[in-house]
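WARN retry 2 of 3 for item q-0093 after timeout on previous attempt; input resubmitted unchanged.
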Amino acid sequence: MIRRKEIWAILIVVVGATAVLVYFAARAVGQVMVLQRQNGNVANAIDISGWQAYHNAQYGFSIRYPQNWKIFMGGLAAETPFVALGNPLSGTTTYTIYISMEQNPRSLSSAEYVHQLLANDRAQDAANAKNGPAPTITPQFASNYITAVNGYGAYELFHVFEFDRDAEQIYVAHGTVALRFDFPVSDPNPNIASPANNNAIAHMIVQTLSFD
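OK item q-0093 returned
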């Protein structure tokens, strides 16, 4: 009888844990479906035929962006090169997309690349904590999932905490290069210009990505 009771206890725990995992998995899938549906509606409403083109020969990719958006290329000389697109790029409220170009020497997939980054950040935080309290470098985010960008496999960290704003970070690994698109979420924010509209356009910009 004791053994039977133990078996039932284990079964109850397993069933409970499975139910929790299913709940959170369904919640994550629901979030993705809502985002895809919202972006799909925007895609049908926006004409990108007149958009400007940006091509980076060194990293072998191209994107397109609206005529009224500005581009900043001064970040190409940084340790981690980047370009910024903005509507506007400066002022009391801004909306900026940062496209960072990172090395992916092991040609990891987008998901593998992000999980390796997070593992490295957590290891560094653990090492720093041994010397006393220290700021963490591991990003804080609400959810993460596999997605796609114009047919390329991608991986997103959603609602990433960035002090005065929350952001979406979409990683697209291709060969030995990994691009990180970082832009504000659509939530109302006094520091962000037209966050809902610009976030929808940002997703359209990301979907114009193509590699040489």
